[in-house]
Amino acid sequence: MKFEHLKIELTRFEGIKCMYSLNLIFLW
Prior knowledge:
The protein is mainly alpha-helical and 28 residues long. The protein has 1 helix and no strands.
């Protein structure tokens, strides 16, 4: 249960990081 929650948090973090990277690319 704890591991599943951690995996979900990690996936959300990866998504945010990806969106942030895309925003930086568009700003260039």
